[in-house]
Each structure stands twice: as structure tokens, then as C-alpha cells.
TrEMBL record:
Top-rank taxon, per record: Bacteria
Lineage of the species this protein comes from: Bacteria, Pseudomonadati, Bacteroidota, Flavobacteriia, Flavobacteriales
Organism of derivation: Thalassobellus suaedae
Signal peptide residues on this chain, from the entry's feature table: none
Name this polypeptide is given: FMN-binding protein
SMART domains in alphabetical order: FMN_bind
Length: 176
């Protein structure tokens, strides 16, 4: 009987956690959207991509990671949230795009390593601003390296590059 109750509690906790973003991430996302789009109120509406399409894309698209940003029933842009690998863990990041799928801002939301956190600096992340689905990002070429953060820099570069490639496919298929 006790195991049944514990199982039920775990199941309920899982169900409750699967709705919406974690509070600490939601706060950061809201703040960035308000700052970038210069608005106070907006709607963040999840975009659901069919599994068959999502599986064929280089970026991961799952529950609660691709959103339309709307205000007064007008599309302002998109938000993409995901994780990328660092040396021994993963870090959470966000990319904000305008309605034409041009990157407006990228942000490292949570970094879990002792070293390499410099990738979260505005100065380094600003090199993604203005990139589009037609850009090809290359570590050490058009993306600057950071000493001591090689794995995280390569990971973030690859993640944004994969996102841009995925956006191109989604745009071609009229999903975005």
C-alpha cells in the first residue's frame, strides 16, 4: 500500500512538473522578453511540432521549448529554450528571434560548471545577434573562441547553428 502511495505521488509530481517552465527559468525568460521586445505584457504560446518532423531536425523540439511571443494578437517573435553540453554537465540557454527568424538575443540561463561560464557574457553572446537561417556558424572562424571554455563555446555554437538550420526547414514547411 505504501509503495502504491509513493508511486502515485511521484506520478502526480511528474505531471505537475511537465506543465510549464520551471519558475526560475520562467522568470528569466519573461525578463528577457520584456527587455528585448520593450513590452510589459505578452503571451508565450507553445508551438508544437509533429514528431515526424521534429525527429528529422538537428535541434531538439519537445514540450515547452519553442514559443510564439504575441502581444495584442500580434506576432512579435519567437523564443527557443534548450540545453547544450559543457564539460561535465549541461547548461540551459534561450534564443529570442524576431518574426522574420532573425536572432535578437541569446542568453545562457543556467550554467552548471565551475569553468567556462564566460560564454554567458553579453559580449560573447552578442555575436549571434542578427544571424539568420541562412548563416553558417563556425567555431574559431565567425564565432570567437574563449580560452578555458572550449567545450561550452563549441557546444553553444553548434546548438545555435542547429537551431538556424532547423528554423530554415520549419520556415520552408510553413510551420513558422
Amino acid at each position: 500500500m505504501m509503495k502504491l502511495k509513493q508511486g502515485l505521488l511521484l506520478f502526480l509530481a511528474f505531471i505537475m512538473l511537465s506543465f510549464g517552465l520551471p519558475k526560475n527559468i520562467q522568470k528569466k525568460v519573461d525578463k528577457e522578453i520584456k527587455d528585448v521586445f520593450n513590452i510589459e505584457s505578452f503571451a508565450l504560446n507553445e508551438i508544437i511540432i509533429a514528431n515526424k518532423i521534429a525527429e528529422s531536425l538537428p535541434s531538439k523540439f519537445n514540450h515547452n521549448n519553442l514559443f510564439k511571443i504575441e502581444a495584442d494578437n500580434t506576432l512579435l517573435g519567437y523564443a527557443y529554450l534548450s540545453q547544450a553540453s559543457s564539460k561535465t554537465a549541461q547548461f540551459d540557454y534561450m534564443v529570442l528571434l524576431d518574426k522574420d527568424l532573425v536572432i535578437l538575443k541569446s542568453k545562457v540561463l543556467i550554467y552548471r560548471e565551475e569553468y567556462g561560464g564566460e560564454i554567458g557574457s553579453r559580449r560573447w553572446l552578442k555575436q549571434f545577434i542578427g544571424k539568420t537561417q541562412n548563416d553558417d556558424l563556425r567555431y574559431g572562424d565567425n564565432i570567437v573562441a574563449i580560452s578555458g571554455a572550449t567545450i561550452s563555446v563549441r557546444s553553444m555554437t553548434n546548438a545555435v547553428n542547429d537551431l538556424l538550420k532547423s528554423l530554415k526547414v520549419l520556415h520552408t514547411k510553413n510551420i513558422l
